[in-house]
Design brief:
about 270 residues, alpha+beta
Length: about 270
């Protein structure tokens, strides 16, 4: 009997990078991708290497004009993220985070252009055994309290002086506009190809590209997860996309099981674990 451990958000955040890299259990997926995912700057570098459109990234020394979103490292589910419109706002908040022990250095955070649009998260599965990329689902994150605040008139928001936060409280299923699918699948393919140049042997199994889609249907990817994401929980009985590949309900967990079975049958099990 053999044991394989799939990677997911809580494992990445709570087990920690050092333990995750050294744990003496075969991991389904790419172990070396953990280090890239733990570093916001490396994540953006990989996306840019893939030629995937991304929001502008600011350095602390840049003159910030207009809204930006500041993100903390790690898989924190949006906790601690904040929107700012000036360097002074960013510096003051990051100093407070360092005092509270949430950051070691301001340079651990990433400052991105804030794009107005719909956030859409695309779930993929790269099959090394079949040598193909599958789009298995999509979701929208429901975040507190930024999604609740949109119900209030602008005047009241200004009067309350609330600083919106982006802590994820749940996920909503999303069926994408069909005209977007070729672009979304192409971005997934580019990511898989670029990952091979940055980590060996490249991404294996689940991954997620996290994006904003604007009014012109431009898709900009602001982050990625090289693992199972919480949005796949919506599709325990499969999604409209996974059904098209397999003619039966296939969740992300079942898709991993299918890959392991196929790898065993073809003598490729060592290829899908690291």
């Amino acid at each position: 009997m053999s044991t394989e451990f799939p990677q997911y958000g809580s494992f990445v955040e709570y087990v920690g990078l050092e333990c995750g890299e050294s744990i003496n259990v075969p991991l389904f997926g790419t172990r070396s991708l953990l280090r890239v995912e733990a570093d916001q700057k490396l994540k953006m570098l990989l996306l840019m290497k893939a030629g995937i459109p991304t929001p502008r990234v600011y350095e602390l020394s840049d003159d910030v004009r207009g809204p930006v979103i500041v993100k903390l490292p790690g898989a924190k589910g949006g906790k601690g993220y904040f929107v700012a419109s000036s360097n002074s706002e960013i510096e003051a908040k990051l100093r407070k985070y360092i005092e509270d022990g949430l950051l070691r250095s301001p340079r651990e955070a990433i400052i991105q252009e804030y794009i107005v649009g719909v956030t859409a998260y695309f779930h993929y599965f790269y099959s090394l055994v079949l040598n193909r990329l599958e789009l298995l689902g999509a979701d929208i994150r429901y975040e507190s309290d930024v999604d609740g605040l949109r119900r209030l008139p602008v005047g009241i928001l200004e009067e309350l002086g609330i600083d919106p936060t982006f802590t994820v409280v749940g996920n909503l299923p999303l069926v994408l506009r069909e005209s977007l699918l070729p672009k979304i699948i192409e971005y997934g393919r580019r990511f898989v190809d670029a990952s091979r140049s940055m980590v060996s042997p490249g991404v294996i199994g689940p991954l997620c590209l996290e994006s904003v889609i604007d009014r012109e249907l431009n898709v900009k990817v602001f982050e990625f997860s090289g693992r199972i994401v919480a949005g796949t929980n919506l599709y325990i009985d499969g999604s409209p996309y996974s059904y098209l590949y397999w003619d039966q309900p296939v969740s992300m967990g079942r898709r991993i099981a299918i890959e392991v079975r196929l790898a065993l049958e073809k003598g490729l099990l060592e290829k899908i674990v690291t």
